[in-house]
Amino acid sequence: MSTTATQTTTITSSSSSSYPAPLVVADDDAANDKAFQSVARGNRSGTLKLRGIPTFTDAVAKRQWMKEHMAAAFRFFGKRGYGEGISGHISMRDPMLKDHFWMNPFAKHFSSIKASDLVLVDADGYVTEGGAQMPINEAGFMIHSEIHKARPDVIAAAHTHSIHGKTWSSFGKPIEMLTQDACNLYGKVGLYEDHGGIALAQEEGEQIARALGEDNIACILQNHGLLTVGRTVDEAAFLFFSLDQACHTQLLAEAAAANGIPKRIITHEVAQYTADVAQNHHNFYTEFQPEYELIVEETNGRVLE
Question: What is the superkingdom listed in this entry's lineage (predicted)?
Answer without folding.
Answer: Eukaryota
